[in-house]
Design a protein that fits this description.
4 copies of one chain form a homotetramer. Chain A has about 220 residues and is mainly alpha-helical. Chain A has helices at about 10-30, 35-40, 45-55, 55-75, 85-100, 105-115, 120-125, 130-145, 155-175, 175-180, 190-205. Chain A folds into 2 domains: about 1-55, Homeodomain-like (Arc Repressor Mutant, subunit A); about 65-215, Tetracycline Repressor, domain 2. Helices cover about 70% and strands about 0% of the residues of chain A. The termini of chain A are far apart. The first copy, chain A, binds a DNA duplex (21 and 21 nucleotides) through helix 3.
Chain lengths: ~220, ~220, ~220, ~220
DNA sequence: CATGAATGAGCTTTCATTCAT
DNA sequence: TATGAATGAAAGCTCATTCAT
């Protein structure tokens, strides 16, 4: 917006619309966002929005795809080679949680998508593969840990991954209602670190081979 | 709707509006819900909605209050006396998770409230006390477990509670996006039980006094 | 409103509604006034308003009648006996102008009635006689002045009366737009007195028998 | 309305809306006028009204400005050069009164604005200068008349102007209530001429230098 | 590629009024 | 006599979208 405007700049216009839409959809949801506001923020007019994305919903799907792509790229570039299994888990968790904490708008979009029962996600093509690399990575770590006798065997990597992500997701996504009820703001550095320590502890306690005897 | 309609029934009208609003707000969010649809579902006309709740937002706040009250009532009535500490944790977790899984609309409302950064929750009065009874209960269990040498000492009950709730919350709230990416539907009995088992295991592993040496 | 409320007080209720209606109609006009606001100000409910006055328009007509009656009563009680013709004119004018200045809301009502082309005034019965006593009074003064050689003869008392009233009416009724354009506020004592002096001068100059030669 | 419609005609659309609004606001006042009716009369839809004028009130202010501008233009083009002072007064008065009589809707708008205590007039910018040219003109006439010994000296031109305008304003603006009470219709040619003669006589009688001795 | 003008449907809200007790 | 509950119509305004240039 504040950047220098070129007269005919198709790619730039498209990109600015997408960025503005991302901002508005994450702030207000699909129903709450205004086409008019998106155009204004993008520094163009409503017509262009339809020119490039066909409809409000089309634009919403485009934003969804872009954000998932961005998220996947970030997770895919994680290098855990040469680490002890427990350290690898630690680093993986911290990486994901930090990313979530630093991109809370992203969570709004995901929540919105769940409100719509995933309808728009289905509409998009390239997806499923988005998540698998990280789960594969995790599977490898768990297997290595088990074979080395450090982790308990037989853990489902997908459930474990979902649990790990959920720990970071919940405290960020629900930071406002949580603060209202607990008086504790989990977006604050101190509180976030403190509960993250708890979460790492919990994950690693669970992975210990002897802990299994308890249940 | 299908219930017998009495001609003059202020309490009934009010209640039906509230129920219809709860349904619509949880389905579509504050912005997405239509006043007109709420009135129709409630079997009355739009005017009554303003008669009883002043505005759409006023109605939203009323729904929010009602749902939180309902949630608190349910959690408050939990009886864990006479149970071993670890069994008490198990029962508490199962109770909360079951409740969450059976009331997914409730989570939509909470997510919506987080989208609004908790603005409407602030507007309501009676709150904070809603959560404390359960946390007090949990604190007592943790202390008893620690004094009996079964749990590690020094655990923050609030962080532990948030973690516990979050485990159940995340898989239910995000069931649609999770299914899109993992192919696994956590609303299904089998998957829900399986990951719940993982979560209980994890909580109890963490609580074991010797697990602490690991980190 | 602030007076002591009796439980069953038909006359009081009716009177309070009428007073509240007068206030609201003069402030906002017929279209702008709100039935709901009238009831609130009157300290009763909307239903009573319909009980006593049938409709909003019925109430408006009642207010109109009441205010005209009040105005007529005031003018009718004027005693000009024993005064020199020119002094009688002076006193008559001052009396009317002061009354207008002190009851600007009344003018709003009259303007409103003119906006409606006098439709509601027609609906009322006892009227025409309202004005005649003052005009009769004025006619008598003019005739006496003429027969005594102080006033020019042949003046139409009705036109003269209309002119006289209009002088006071215009500066009060249009005080806001006049101030916006002239910067002079004719509701202020000083300005009102100054222009009133001009008006009296003008009326009396015109009445002088020799002034007629000029035209 | 009945004119030929061009498909894309921004200026025309804007103008037609303004004209329709002027008609409706003068007929029914700000509160009484209907946005829907304005759009229909303008031969467009309600949306365009907001497109060009932001809100109903915005449109009202635009109408106000347009009508004042029109009024000012008309008065500004008056040529009184080469006339005897008394004839100049006569011509000025006749010009203003005729204009008022021929544009009674304009008076409705002014009355409406006074009902609103001039709130919307304030909102507008260019104003004060609207009236001054005519007052300057009048001041010059009065001074010339005084220096030539035809008029009494020391007359305040602003008060004199207000009085002059008021004479024409009152009988037109209040023609309906006046007819209800006096039975005389001042919009009719005969009656209007008759009272106008009285008014001119009165103004000139007052201006005569010797009339001043009377008071 | 870009944009101002135009549209109709639908939104939340308010209105005057009537019903039932 | 008094009042809370109920209503339908319509108000002002906003929405996503399309047309014409």
């Amino acid at each position: 917006m504040s950047e220098l405007r070129v007269k005919r700049d198709p790619e730039g216009t498209r990109r600015r619309i997408l960025e503005a839409a991302a901002e508005q959809f994450t702030k207000f949801g699909l129903a709450g966002a205004r086409v008019d506001a998106i155009a204004t923020v993008a520094g163009t007019n409503e017509r262009m929005l339809y020119y490039y994305f066909t409809s409000k919903e089309g634009l919403y799907v485009a934003v969804l795809e872009a954000m998932y792509a961005q998220f996947a790229e970030r997770e895919g570039s994680l290098d855990l080679s040469g680490l002890q299994p427990s350290d690898a888990i630690r680093k993986l968790a911290q990486s994901i949680w930090t990313h979530l904490r630093d991109n809370p708008q992203w969570l709004n979009l995901v929540n919105n998508e769940n409100l719509h029962e995933g309808r728009y996600l289905e509409r998009s093509s390239r997806l499923r593969e988005t998540i698998s690399p990280v789960v594969d990575l995790l599977r490898a770590i768990l297997e290595r840990g088990a074979s080395e006798g450090q982790f308990r065997p037989g853990i489902d990597p997908l459930d474990f991954y979902v649990t790990l992500v959920g720990m970071g997701y919940y405290v960020v996504s629900n930071r406002f209602t949580l603060e209202a009820f607990t008086g504790r703001n989990y977006a604050e550095q101190r509180n976030h670190e403190s509960i993250s320590r708890l979460h790492v502890d919990m994950l690693l306690s669970y992975l210990r081979p002897d802990s299994r005897t308890m249940d």
